Fold each of these.
Amino acid sequence: MQGEKREKLGLLLGLVGVICFSLTLPATRIAVEHFGTTIVGLGRTVVAAMLVAVVLLIRKEKLPSPRQFKSLLIVAIGAVLGFPLLTSWAMEDLPVSHGAVEVALLPLATAGFAMLRAGEIPSLKFWISSAIGSLAVIIYALHLGFGSLQYADLALLTAVIILGLSYAEGGKLAKELGSWQVIAWAIIIGAPFFIIPVALSMTTEMLHAPIQAWISFIYLAVVSQFLAYVAWYSGMALGGIARVSQIQYLQPFLMILFATLFLHESITYFTIVIAVIVVFSVIFGKGASVRKKVEVAGEG
């Protein structure tokens, strides 16, 4: 029963994380128009690092071990550098609805890396539910007629791959280091490298940016870059990486909903139908068994 409660809490925290992440692309689209790619993609980490440093000092957290540092470096490359920078660049040219359907492939990337990095082996039922969700997303993309891949599309797909690795690595590490500590240390690792390019990109015109641009940037720095990851990694640590990752199928449609509310992008009945199918795939896969690889004695 205790294990069942842990799983339910993990799924709930995962949902909170997904809702927070779903506002990332809309907020990025608003902020990047006024601040540019470098400030939005890297500057959010510099701001988040200030908050994180205070928290780490107050709590007197001990430094990660060399082995943990290697995993944190992977998290930093994906969640702190790659995804924010690539999506900021892509959102200069693409509507949020476009980006949302490509980000929907993230659960498959996460589950695949989970097998490699965390030793989880999803069952056939899990892969069937993943295939249903992915197929729905592909049909949705084809219906919208996005056409051939552009450089912005390639940037988003690359962002999805490296973030999938980061999610899986962070979810594994969260079990021993702590959920919020994973993203906190990853931010601290990445921020020093971003200070100079961010400083060089700052202009006096930023001071005249509208209030919605500043709110979007602050949201990206405080919530998208830190607090959302706390909920997300906690969820994966409690509920299992592959299983909790399926909640991400809701993310593209939440993104489209938020894009409709804040950016006035249109939403169609077809989008709603696809959303229902994707939600069904999440429900179908929720009870799928996920087993651990058997470790061979003597392996490190």
Note: Residues 295-300 have pLDDT under 50 and may be disordered.
Amino acid sequence: MAEYDLNELQKIHENKDVLNYLEQHGILEIKKFNDVYDYEKELYELQVKLLKLQYEIIEKGKRVLIIFEGRDAAGKGGTIGRVTQYLNPKKVRVVALPKPTEEEAGQWYFQRYIKQLPNAGEIVIFDRSWYNRAVVEPVFGFCSKEQHELFMNQVPEFEKQLIDDGIILIKLFLNVSKEEQAERLKERKEDILKQWKIGVLDQQAQEKWDVYTGYIENLFKKTSTKKSPWLEITKDNKKKARLASFKLIINALVGSEQEKIDSFVTKHD
């Protein structure tokens, strides 16, 4: 246990001296502290900007739809949590639809998602979306080849209609390396507080990595348009990926690159 010199502590009058003292006595690593401080500071600033934009969305009756897709354990849930943390909860909804019911399975594929589209003044965030049919469903054989191809042909026109009707559509794809995914899935298994995150399909994410990759590449090729591009964030650092997500959302809402785009972000259009 660290020992403290009362005389030394009494001489400290400035914050920087406190930090220096803690570092010298092996209590604190300044670099790690600064990294966390810088992240939290930038995150807060971006959350404030997003909240101000929400005021405008509410006032002007705009409709915003944000789609979060990505590989398993890429950090979608954590990012969505930070995005919504300080927003007006009455005007933001997170939608994570379960497996289709028997009735829904007999409907047009987009039908159950249409019910969840944003109302005037509202932000809706899809934690996974109709794009299940582009990647997850074909990877695991949950849809036929014909159903997959039909979806891929229909989705660009479907999204064009949403945008033409005034919906602001933002599509984010979070990607990680195979090695990083393996580490995060391992952590989920070992951490009792994270074990609820492990699904049946997550356990096969590593085994089917290459199959996933093929469908993801096809996703960008077939469903990215100038009106509705995919914004891919490829970063193993969760904090940097979260900040990048905020910047992309803010830029899309203001209609310009107000926030500097990071080098690990790819715009597919």
Note: The mean pLDDT is 91.
Amino acid sequence: MKKYKVGIIGGTGMVGQRFITLMEGHPWFQLTVIAASPRSAGKTYEQAVSGRWAMEKPIPEEAKGLVVMDAQADVEKIAGLVDFVFCAVDMKKDEIRALEERYAKAECPVVSNNSAHRWTDDVPMVVPEMNPQHIEIIPAQRRRLGTKRGFIAVKSNCSIQSYAPAITPLLKYGVEKVLVCTYQAISGAGKTFERWPEMVDNLIPYIGGEEEKSEQEPLKIWGRIENDKFVKADGPSITAQCLRVPVSDGHTAAVFIKFSGEKPSIEQIKLDWANFKGRAQELELPSAPKQFIHYFEEPDRPQAKLDRELEGGMAVSMGRLREDTQYDYKFVGLSHNTLRGAAGGAVLLAELLCAEGYIDHM
């Protein structure tokens, strides 16, 4: 098949670097443009990330010699070179919103890793296994923007991937309340231990804005489209605490869940998780895990170091499902925050948008 030409906006940061590695050998996507801030523009990508390449894999050969463009000054030029862009810039939210709309209005679809547009009324926030139908709002968004090709779609917050997928197939039983504590890796802050030595042997019980996202974003994902806008789901009620822990990659969640009616059995929940598939699996998208939710029977699993890379880091893991004294059940979840949670989730969303005809070739 003819490959889609891809641009990465914000390609020098932690998530941008992850996008770069995921483009290497991708069967559908060809890395064509890398853009970043003015201080990186004009340098080769290898020069721009010299001394701050944070991935275990080396810089892909196809990226090394690309001359970095200016993400803000070269919008029209970039839009003319690619079929769509991934966006992972580090800017203020209002600046990100404006920049992403500039790309969309330049008739360049934007698949964003940023949080800036997650609550825009007509911007779909999609986990392809959970709410693929939400991309159906794109024609309405195009009418608002006055575009034919351009639009913005976003992926959700990385931490909710460690628990919201497990709750989704259980909603049919009437989930009333969820309490979740997330233990989040330092790469979620764009850091490594070399750059953040104070995180070694440490735990920080605060991540700015994370608890609000954790409590609210699942409700948009479980919501519906009405009058060309998203309406949040009425429930379940979610309360969250989010902690930064000394782990390189992988967000873990301790989850407590209560049902409004008769609760399903432990065996039924495990069966629902094992059978949970979505549009990504139906379409056999290149980045989709074959088994979305893996359950571990071992009492000490899932573990970030052992299990975060399952199915290329795109599967999520559950374990320790058992009855609780105050809620009905409790369990532990794990997802790779920069793969399933960030860049990989955005790549999977882009694959869905291409497969469903929302992104075409220029």
Note: The first strand starts at residue 4 and ends at 9.
